[in-house]
Amino acid sequence: MLDLGRTFLQSVERSPNALALVDGELTLTYAQWHRIILNVAHGLRELGLARGDRLLVALQNRWEMATLHWACQFAGVAIVPLNWRAKADELDYCVADAGVKAIVYEPVSAEAVTDSAAAKTVPRIALDDAAGASISFDALLVERRREGAATAAATTQATAEDYSLILYTSGTTGKAKGVPRRHRHERAAALAHVAQNLYRHGERTLGVMPLYHTMGVRSLLSMALVDGLFVCVPRWSATLALDSICTYRLTCLYLVPTLYHDLLAAPEFALTDTSSVTKLGFAGAPMNDGLLRRLSAAFHPELFVNHYGSSEVYTFSIGQDATLKPGSAGRAGINTRLRVVKLDAKSPDEPAQTGEEGQIIADLLGDESFEGYWNRPDANAKSLRDGWYFTGDTGYFDNDGDLYVSGRVDDMIISGGENISPVDIESVLSLHPAVDEVAVAGVKDERWGQRVVAFIKRSEYVEAQTLDDFCRASDLVNFKRPREYVFVDDIPKSPVGKILRRKLSAGEYEPEHGATQPDRTTKGVTHD
């Protein structure tokens, strides 16, 4: 299999003059970008990074971040992209855990770097004159014309078996886990992304999902596979995103549901020509029925893909018509085998019945699957069993063989001895016209163990009792009905838009400004 450097060379050779990268006023063709990438790759080598070394990068989605990703692929260096919001202690951990040889950062991440003891032990490459640097990023851009440069430019230093990157998972509890992925894993995942989203030659996408997240990386790589355009969005702004769609006639979007929600809510949406967008894809979190319907009406997409996956195994399942069976994650991807096993299963050979909620597992022989966590035998022992990856996600297969993802094992609400999935309840409540956003979590209860609480961001005034009546009139079974409604200004989410239910359960949220106590809970609701 080709490594990723040679993969990029394919696009340079096929379409040297095609527009490849945009960041603000900067526009680069594939030939122009290739030259810059090679300069940066050579600069990394001169700094002492060799094939197999690791480079930690804490940058937003700017052109330098995208360039470094590709430069590492050419240099045979594994990139370790980290959230630019990371704190000093997170840097300390990742620098030591990954054994990085240098750090690249910018002013927004400079405080963490300067406060990190581990960062002081390696070269620090700064953008925009960020404090604490030992070298400027501009020094990597210097044109190299010495002997051997032309030969080095003709090929890459990596093979398909080398590590491409190490992604650190969000780490909801304890330290984050490093997910090492080889060039062949990444290329297989990008090829699957192209095939499963029906991307054509010359597609154009919004580069807004963070490049420290698997969705952002997949958008970057898949555009190179089809000689497409990657438009950088350093920090999320619905206004900027809509302007980019219109200006560059973007053809496909791959976002988390939260960002789609923001796009539709932006005042500029109604005034923006989005007709060039023909393909929508989402991942990272389930999309509720209400948002599915609104997006379908707004874009009339020819393809609306629900992609379910993870950093460890990029594609679990894919559904190419998300509105056909709302809530369904479709069927296993082209590189994947899936099973649902009983919640307490110790091996992959304990299947759940059709319609029975269990834990979703994936075959580690899949072309996109990782081989185990970086320096974490404890995590491997928990998640890798008999050649299968136990995802920690809950779900079930319906009678048609389609997968439904109901949440996380840790998010499961156990109330009165019943297992209750938050996702089912959120899908129902999202259909009420006064509900802008909703998240459901379990809150400790002396009698029931946990009680089901719905946290609502309202688009217009509605009382808790009205929402309870709405649930009673739906097909939601009675024991899943929320026993409390809390109105909030915002639903707490991770940087990539995942609902942080643990914060809601722990009371870490701000009640809606001006909401009165009677509005926050249903009156006289029982577990009848």
Automatic annotation (TrEMBL):
Residues 10-374 form the AMP-dependent synthetase/ligase domain. Residues 505-528 are annotated as: Disordered. Belongs to the ATP-dependent AMP-binding enzyme family. This is 4-chlorobenzoate--CoA ligase. The keyword Ligase applies. GO terms for biological process: fatty acid metabolic process. Keywords: Ligase. Gene3D superfamilies: 3.30.300.30, N-terminal domain of ligase-like.
